[in-house]
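B., you asked whether I could sanity-check this one before it goes into the benchmark set. Here's the sequence:
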Amino acid sequence: MADAIHPVVEISPSHDVARLKVNGRGMAAESVRFTGRGKIQNHFRAPMHMLVMYEKGERRDGETFVEGLPRSALRKLERKLTFVPAGREFFDWHELRGSQMRLMYFYFEPDKLSGLSNPGLAGSSVAPRLLFEDDTLCHTALKLKALVDGPAADPLYFSSLGTLLIHEFVRFTFGLPSIKPQLQGGLAPWQQRLVTAYIREHVNERIPIRILAQLVRLSPHHFCRVFKQSLGMPPHRYQTNQRVEQAKLLLAGRSASMTEIGRALGFNSRNAFATAFRKATGIAPADYRRSLDSRMTEE
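And here's what the prediction gave me:
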């Protein structure tokens, strides 16, 4: 690989971690496995972007912080991602539940991101993101991790996968549709369009699985299986994600109270809304609204 020197996350204590790293031109990938049972601390600030992918891990206690966003104490970190823009501070600490945590750090120079962006988006700023989910990004990140963990990394393959990951991050960040592989045995295109449209139109309701299954002429058991195969998550989780995304839009509007937003989305109480939002995003809805206010002030 190219012998470029890239900054890495500072991990303490260093003896409780196994690290493998591959450098490329303008990018680097690092596979990290934590084996200790005590408190682990991670810190990063550098003139490079960083994408974190938690492959496996749950913590009894801890929090994650990216400069510009509220802290998150989300416990279950599996398949969560965090993006740290160049120059921003990243810090997290964990007291692990279970024997191991496995994750990946992907570092890349800002020019890589701007060079792959749509020309119409060239002037757009890239905001930090904390403990979010995206199956397409996770899929490519896991391929990169397998390459780093392997006996000998192919430089061309590493460069191709790294470029693909940056492309996919750009598409996710600017709301462009992901390019997903065609899955065999999942929902037919007409079934997927029908059921996802129905969920969006009834985002303020708790839709029984049997109703969704009837829409596409399947048994509830078979529907749940093929829905997850096509959309990467169970129907109830997809419904919750849609409600949370709608909540984010209402929170950005600033005109409605937390109670009003929760009621509009079908939650029984303000506490039930806050609990669901925090579980999906890692932060409380009030903190999310404050983060939008601070971001507007920065701009």
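One thing to flag: The longest strand covers residues 27-34. Otherwise nothing jumped out at me.
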